[in-house]
Amino acid sequence: MSSTWDYTDHAGYYSARPNYADSVIDDLVRHVGAVPSDSCLIADVGAGTGNLTLMLLGRGLRCVAVEPNAEMRKHGVERTAPWNTKWIDGRGEGTGLAADSIDWVTMGSSFNTMDRPTALVECHRILKLRGCFTCMWNHRDLDDPVQQEIESLIRRLVPTYDAGTRREDQTGIIHASRLFSEIRYIEGSQVVRQSRDNYVAAWRSTRNLKIHAADRFDSVIEAIDRALENHPVLELRYTTRSWTARRN
User: Are 124 and 179 in contact (CB under 8 A)?
Assistant: First the structure.
């Protein structure tokens, strides 16, 4: 994860993000065959403050969390303390995990922050034979009028803003690695009820917006907050999109 993706200033807001759709996580667990067992180990790579890690732990699965940012790890350790989850200072391109030791590698909203071909090589190295790799993101539904309004506001204030590779189909880059096969796409939508304050805090966690807005970041966040002054509570649709493949 490059210095461009330094989340130090965003870590305190990261838990405000709406989490992934439960239906997608359940489908993925069934698809990869993950089970609550000492013999099944999941590596959540680019774990952030543990949003996805907590969803996996809550299903009884055994996880190790890999996260390069110290502030994000600190929050993650605190949030996952009841499970005594091991946290490792590592990157998607170099996790520090042993070869052939992991049953399932997950990347929640992190695959786009790293050199993806190199990260796929690393995932292949640490996965057991026929182990699985999954990358996923939780997308705002831009057909929603409120989300449309905020998207238009941001693009007006920050013309260079771009979602980057996170909204791309990941099939091509996974296939091009020749390290994985049986690529499967799973998605699911959900309506999330959240307060205005929580929604705005989630935007403060968004490193990509900070990269493009630079010293205008705080003023953009304030503009989002003002735009929602008549919406103390929001019910917004999000879609979780995921790609899973098996190690050759």
Answer: yes
Dump the DSSP string for 85-130: -EEE--BTTB--PPTT-EEEEEEES-GGGS-HHHHHHHHHHHEEEE
Write out the two tokens for 21: 């759709």
As a whole number of angstroms, the distance between CA 112 and CA 92 comes to 10
Which residues make beta-bridge pairs with 137?
241
d(CA 116, CA 170): 10
Domains and CATH numbers, the chain: 3-247 (3.40.50.150)
Nearest to 112 by CA among 17, 215, 10, 1: 1
247: left (phi over 0), alpha (psi -120 to 50) or beta: beta
- pLDDT digit string, tens, across residues 46-102: 999 999 999 999 999 999 999 999 999 999 999 999 999 999 999 999 999 999 999
How high is the pLDDT of residue 3? 54
Q: 56: which 2 tokens?
A: 């996996």
**Beta partners for residue 245, in sequence order:** 133
Q: In which residue are the tokens 């359940």 written? A: 26
Edge-to-edge, what's the strand order for the sheet holding 233-247? 86-88, 62-66, 41-45, 102-108, 127-140, 233-247, 180-195
**Among candidate residues 233, 232, 230, the one with its CA nearest the CA of residue 191:** 233
CA-CA distance, 54 to 185, in Å (whole number)? 22
